[in-house]
Amino acid sequence: LIVSIFCLLLTIISYLSSIKLRKSEHGQLLINLCFALMGLYITFIVAIHSRTVTGLCALSAAVLQYFFLVTFLVMAAEAINLYMKLVIVLGANIPHFVLKAAIVSWLTPIFIVLFCFAPNYKNYVSDHFCRAFNIPYYIGMVV
Question: pTM of the prediction?
Fold first, then answer.
């Protein structure tokens, strides 16, 4: 996990330092994916070590679910972008696609996590690992 975080940092630094890489749609989506994965990995490490404190366990589990959903949505945006560039070649240009995809990818999971977390935070606490269980798991992760 530490090696993955280090490599993500190298990727972020290299893409942010090069204007040519940073300007492309693929580069911008990749930077979003790297930040989402970085948050997911760091939150995963925190969630492993916070299972003894109930409040911290519930909070880290909610943040873990958030970054999982962000990662999934950014990957879906990258897939849609590749589909538009490779399969639908003519006339498939959505203006400001990366901005729209980033807003949807980073904001939509907030509402999903709040919808799952608000009724009962105890569904995010366990003795073994801090993550969503029962109904919040199925609503937030599977659906």
Answer: 0.88
